[in-house]
Amino acid sequence: MMCRRTLSVLMMSVGLLAASAAAARTPAVERRCVVQSRVAAPVVRDDGRLYFRGLTDAKQSYIAIFKGGSCPGLNAFATARVETTGAGYCEGDKVRALAAPGQIPGLLCVIDHLMPFAGDIDDPVPDESGNK
Length: 132
Hints:
Strand order of the largest sheet: 2-3-4-8-7-5
Number of strands: 8
Mean pLDDT: 79
Distance between the termini: 77 Å
Order of helices and strands: HEEEEEEEE
Largest sheet: 6 strands, antiparallel
Shape: globular
Helix content: 10-25%
Strand content: 25-35%
Structural class: alpha+beta
Low-confidence stretches: 5-26
Number of helices: 1
């Protein structure tokens, strides 16, 4: 009886060690972020894109690119609320458009990536090929 319990405990320990070793080998998902202290609060552009202006220089700004394309509800009259998970704006953060006058929350959008943008809020955004 005692031998069986010892064997069971030993087998469970080996199983836990193997599982933790496998988890240790799995690389953590790296999320690229922009530190919030380096950009101003996000602003919705007239074209419905979310713009993060660089605080020290407009040439260090970013445009949020959403998974699935555009973010429904983001327009020049909406306020954007970004649900961050840390001290920066990151890939995978969630954005919700709030429609005036009652600040009614819209659909949830997910940031795919933050595209560097060396322009001001009203400047044209280049497409994938770099054309404006």
